Automatic annotation (TrEMBL):
Residues 235-269 form the FPG-type domain. CDD domains: BaFpgNei_N_1 (cd08973). The lineage of its organism: Bacteria, Bacillati, Actinomycetota, Actinomycetes, Micrococcales. Keywords: DNA damage, DNA repair, DNA-binding, Glycosidase, Hydrolase, Lyase, Metal-binding, Multifunctional enzyme, Zinc, Zinc-finger. This is Fpg/Nei family DNA glycosylase. It comes from Amnibacterium endophyticum.
Length: 286
């Protein structure tokens, strides 16, 4: 799933490619992807792209008095083509195409059977409920350590992993970067959000450094290269069974119904492996 650093890089790449260009049409191949009906998709045709920005994980194509807002969800992605392909079915099926007046443009795809990708055509991005309820951008200078501490205090006994991923509390952090932030902060994913001042400082600094580093690595990359860069920069996420680059312990995972987290026992949980809940249901310990 693309998170804030990748969406930031996608917005930068799309801005270079689309800004000042005229959209010939927006073709939506997957009916489930389109979440709005007024204004109609046809109103996009003939409009110039003024800017491409993002709100957390949401891309925003500014067309003046219209906006095309895209959330790529878990399995969505975007690819640039000098000549756009025709719609097709199957894995990585085309969900939509942003077609420019010269036939080039962007293909938006979504792999798998669980379709969560969302496209909104709106007059104001705040018409998208999940944007209207977004928490602050974690890299906004106005999001200070004091404001971060307030977020954690308000979350109380909620597990910190879930708090970091809660888009209404902090925008743009998902499963991957929450793993990386907690590893950098040497903190258990199940630790309560209400914590000591020293721990708040450590977590705030880790959040800033992990996200800033990810943005630096992704800055200037074309969208085709972003997935590989994200994977290569991860220390624990997606690296179950590998050695922790800090201490050498084996990276472990905890699996849930539709996701999993990765962590280092030595760095984060005092050397104690957490119970893998999927295995625990089968009477297996790790």
């Amino acid at each position: 799933m693309p998170e804030m650093p990748e969406v930031h890089a996608l917005a930068s790449d799309l801005s270079v490619r689309l800004e000042g260009r005229t959209i010939a049409r927006l073709d939506v191949s997957a009916f489930s992807a389109l979440k709005t009906f007024d204004p109609p998709v046809s109103d996009v045709a003939g409009r110039e792209v003024r800017d491409v920005t993002h709100h957390g994980k949401f891309l925003d194509l500014d067309l003046g008095d219209l906006h095309v807002v895209i959330h790529l969800a878990k399995a969505g992605w975007m690819r640039w083509y000098d000549v756009l392909p025709a719609p097709r079915t199957g894995r990585g099926a085309l969900a939509a195409r942003i077609v420019l007046d010269d036939g080039s443009g962007v293909a938006i795809t979504e792999a798998g059977t669980k379709k969560s990708l969302a496209i909104h055509v709106v007059r104001d991005p705040l018409e998208v409920e999940r944007i209207a309820t977004l928490g602050p951008d974690p890299l906004d200078p106005a999001f200070t350590r004091a404001r971060f501490a307030e977020v954690l205090r308000a979350a109380g006994r909620a597990q910190i992993k879930g708090v970091l991923r809660d888009q209404s509390r902090i925008a743009g952090i998902g499963n991957a970067y929450s793993d990386e932030i907690l590893h950098a902060a040497r903190m258990s994913p199940f630790k309560p959000a209400a914590m000591a001042d020293e721990e708040v400082d450590r977590l705030f600094d880790a959040m800033r450094s992990v996200l800033e580093d990810a943005i630096r690595r992704s800055d200037g990359l074309a969208m085709a290269d972003l997935k590989g860069e994200k994977r290569s920069g991860m220390r624990v996420h997606g690296r179950t069974g590998e050695a922790c680059p800090v201490c050498g312990d084996t990276v472990r995972r905890v699996r849930f119904a539709d996701s999993e987290l990765q962590y280092c026992p030595t760095c984060q949980t005092g050397g104690k492996p957490l119970a893998d809940r999927a295995l625990s249901r089968l009477g297996i310990t790790t």
